[in-house]
Design brief:
Chain lengths: 249, 249
């Protein structure tokens, strides 16, 4: 049983202050993970108030690339600082966490397809380690380097590892309807286009519409929930919204 | 034309002082690389006075593993500090250097075979970046995590990338004979067993006998030289000792 869990950057950092950790959010998440008994767990965290400022300063985004190694090093180093803080918080809760840095292990081809090596991640899981990946800057053919979002990373890695469950721990308790109630299950985008926006709208930066669309493509059941729902998710419960695409068996 | 160049840890650090940079050695190496016009260059550096102390403290070696994530994080972080210094020195000389951390991209299987992802390295080269790898601690099946030497990494990466040339920049001007003269070419181990030791002796920690044996297995011509020979190597010259195994065309 392999679980891939994304921790949103907004839970771990304070968005309004540059490279500032949300100590309460980080320790709550780490404690929930430390208390859970998940067989094989892969963690992915977002950027929050790390990474983005450096990416913006160099004009680098998911679409726009840079050929300057200095920009790549700077964005990547910022994410490294956040990753070390996440690793330290997890270690305090007894989680055998070790880093996997996407710049070192992935790239995007000229058609925009993301490749991330996962044989080494599978080896880590087999040895009892908890690999901790993160949104990053990665090499992109014909563009130099571009931003890889944590959301895109989660689905690519979950697919490559043939994961059994995917969870996105976000700042909201699930996908919300017009009355701000959590929608318990989504099987297709049409059901939620009214609240999330139409199919024509693009959303590559981690918004809810993008999350739902990406998760619907997965052959793996996925859940979206908040920090309160994290313990339930880790114990096999059913917090938040279940996103179940047509390829889920 | 792809070249894989290893910079020995003894050139970049002061071995007798914990985590101490040899500023003269590092800047000399970086300047030579900055001045060269190599088409596609992959750099690998050793550990020197970084990494080893932490590995020894946790009883981790090429053979002996650890299942403690804290030990993995500590050894890896030490190599990260050295890697950042190497990247900074290269950047000062105009080299578009970006890091590739082997813990994130490689593992050893239960038979001891090393796998290192290189598709992302090839993408970096194609985009004009200079990837900088290093000796590291990596996941090893049935052992937790063990040490990966820079020498082993060089040959694995050179093979996977179908490199055209391999260079080991070491603390000696080449493989030396009984009179401490550089042997210009080695085609088989028998020729040098008298000076390097017999075939029965094992050497996994980066000694000259191990280097020569490993390079003889490569289907790529390789050279061993010192910092003085580095500019000549980078301009296609013939410093030090050429090691040319039976599989070199």
């Amino acid at each position: 049983m392999t679980t891939v869990l994304k921790l949103g950057g907004s839970l771990l950092t304070r968005k309004d202050e540059h490279e500032s950790i949300d100590e309460a959010g980080l320790s709550t998440a780490a404690a929930a993970i430390g208390a859970a008994s998940v067989d094989e767990l892969v963690l992915v965290h977002g950027a929050g108030s790390f990474g983005h400022v450096h990416a913006d300063a160099h004009g680098v985004s998911v679409e726009a690339g840079t050929s300057e190694a200095a920009a790549v090093r700077e964005i990547h180093a910022s994410m490294g600082r956040l990753n070390r803080r996440v690793l330290a918080a997890l270690a305090e809760e007894g989680v055998e966490a070790i880093p996997v840095r996407p710049l070192s292990a992935s790239y995007r081809d000229a058609e925009g397809a993301l490749w991330h090596a996962t044989d080494q991640v599978a080896a880590m899981l087999a040895e009892g380690f908890v690999p901790v990946l993160h949104g990053d800057v990665i090499t992109t053919r014909e563009k130099g380097a571009t931003i890889l979002s944590g959301d895109e990373l989660v689905v690519t890695v979950a697919r490559s590892l043939h994961a059994d469950a995917v969870g996105l721990c976000a700042g909201v308790p699930g996908v919300l309807d017009e009355d701000d109630s959590v929608i318990p299950e989504i099987d297709g985008y049409d059901e939620v286009a009214g609240v999330l926006g139409g199919a024509a709208e693009t959303d590559v930066t981690g918004g809810m519409a993008g999350k739902v669309r990406t998760l619907l493509d997965l052959p793996i059941p996925a859940r979206i929930f908040d920090l309160e729902g994290l313990p339930a998710f880790l114990s096999g419960g059913d917090p938040g919204t279940l996103v179940r695409g047509p390829d889920v068996e």
